[in-house]
C-alpha cells in the first residue's frame, strides 16, 4: 500500500483512467457526447466533461455511497459525481451537515470540496437517456464498481441510493437473497459489512417530500454509526 489506511493511489488512478476512457456502450457514448455538444442554455459557455465519470472521495473511506448514473447536465457536465445539479445540492449539503463533506456545495471539480470517510460512485458511469440505463449497459459497467470497491480497503458500509443501485450493489457484494429495497432497510453481510438503504436524492423524491432532509440525514448518521466514524 502506498497510503496507510487507504487505497493505493496508483490503483485508483489506473482505474480512473480506464473508466474515463471507456466507450463500451454505443448508445451511452452517443448520448453523453450529444448532450456535451448541444448543452443546456444556462451552461452554453461551459465545456462539458461528456465522458464516463469516476468515483470521488476519501481513499480511506469507510462508507461508499452508490448512485444510479451521472445526470446529463450535472456530472456529465462537471466530471464529478453528483456535482452541478439539484440532486447533488441535496446530497452534499446533507454530507456537510453529517460530517462527511468539507463544504455544503458542489459546483465543479476544482471547487475545493473534499470528503472525509466517504466515497461517492455510481452503478453506471455515463449519463443515460431519460436517466434509464438498459440491462446490457448496467452489466458492462458493473466490473468498474466491483474493482473500485475492492481497492478501497476500509469500506464497511455501503449506502445505495435507490432500488437500481441497491440491486447492482447486491450483485457486486454477492447477496443472493436480500430484503426488498426500502428507505432505511439494513442488511448485515459477512466480514462486518453492512448495506444501509436510502431513497435516491433525485428531485422526483426530494421535491415531493418522499425524501426529506431529516430522513436523509438520519440514514447518513446511521451509516456513520455502523462504520464507527
Classify the beta-strand content into a percent band: 5-15%
Number of helical elements: 8
User: What is the succession of H and E elements?
Assistant: HHEEHHEHEHEEHH
Q: State Rg.
A: 16 Å
**What's the average pLDDT?**
95
How would you characterize the overall build of this protein?
By secondary structure, this protein is of the alpha/beta class. It has one domain: Uracil-DNA Glycosylase, subunit E (3-Layer(aba) Sandwich), CATH 3.40.470.10. It has eight helices and six strands; from the N terminus they run ααββααβαβαββαα. The chain has helices spanning 9-20, 26-38, 75-78, 86-97, 135-150, 163-173, 203-206, 213-227; strands spanning 56-57, 63-67, 118-122, 157-160, 186-188, 194-196. The chain has a six-stranded mixed sheet with strand order 1-3-2-4-6-5. Strand 5 (186-188) and strand 6 form a beta hairpin. Helix 4 (86-97) crosses helix 8 and helix 5 packs across helix 6 (163-173). The radius of gyration is 16 Å and the shape is globular. It starts with 8 loop residues before the first helix and ends with a helix. The mean pLDDT is 95.
Task: Summarize, please.
With 229 residues, the chain is of the alpha/beta class. Helices cover 38% and strands 10% of the residues.
Keywords for this structure?
229 residues; six-stranded mixed sheet; Uracil-DNA Glycosylase, subunit E; alpha/beta; 8 helices
Layout of strands and helices, then pairs:
Elements: H1 9-20, H2 26-38, E1 56-57, E2 63-67, H3 75-78, H4 86-97, E3 118-122, H5 135-150, E4 157-160, H6 163-173, E5 186-188, E6 194-196, H7 203-206, H8 213-227
Parallel strand pairs: 2-3, 2-4, 4-6
Antiparallel strand pairs: 1-3, 5-6
Helix pairs in contact: 4-8, 5-6
Amino acid at each position: 500500500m502506498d497510503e496507510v489506511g487507504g487505497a493505493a493511489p496508483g490503483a485508483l488512478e489506473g482505474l480512473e483512467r480506464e473508466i474515463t476512457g471507456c466507450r463500451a456502450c454505443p448508445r451511452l457514448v452517443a448520448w453523453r457526447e450529444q448532450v456535451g455538444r448541444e448543452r443546456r442554455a444556462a451552461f452554453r459557455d461551459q465545456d462539458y466533461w461528456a465522458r464516463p465519470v469516476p468515483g470521488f472521495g476519501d481513499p480511506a473511506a469507510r462508507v461508499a455511497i452508490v448512485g444510479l448514473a451521472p445526470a446529463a447536465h450535472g456530472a456529465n457536465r462537471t466530471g464529478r459525481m453528483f456535482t452541478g445539479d439539484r440532486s447533488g445540492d441535496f446530497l452534499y449539503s446533507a454530507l456537510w451537515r453529517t460530517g462527511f463533506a468539507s463544504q455544503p456545495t458542489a459546483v465543479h471539480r476544482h471547487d475545493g470540496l473534499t470528503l472525509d470517510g466517504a466515497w461517492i460512485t455510481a452503478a453506471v458511469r455515463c449519463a443515460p437517456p431519460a436517466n434509464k440505463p438498459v440491462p446490457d449497459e448496467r452489466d458492462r459497467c458493473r466490473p468498474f464498481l466491483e474493482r473500485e470497491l475492492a481497492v478501497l480497503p476500509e469500506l464497511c458500509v455501503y449506502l445505495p441510493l435507490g432500488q437500481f443501485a441497491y440491486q447492482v450493489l447486491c450483485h457486486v457484494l454477492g447477496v443472493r437473497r436480500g430484503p426488498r429495497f426500502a428507505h432505511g432497510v439494513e442488511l448485515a453481510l459477512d466480514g462486518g459489512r453492512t448495506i444501509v438503504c436510502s431513497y435516491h436524492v433525485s428531485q422526483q423524491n426530494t421535491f415531493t417530500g418522499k425524501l426529506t432532509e431529516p430522513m436523509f440525514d438520519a440514514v447518513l448518521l446511521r451509516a456513520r454509526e455502523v462504520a464507527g466514524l
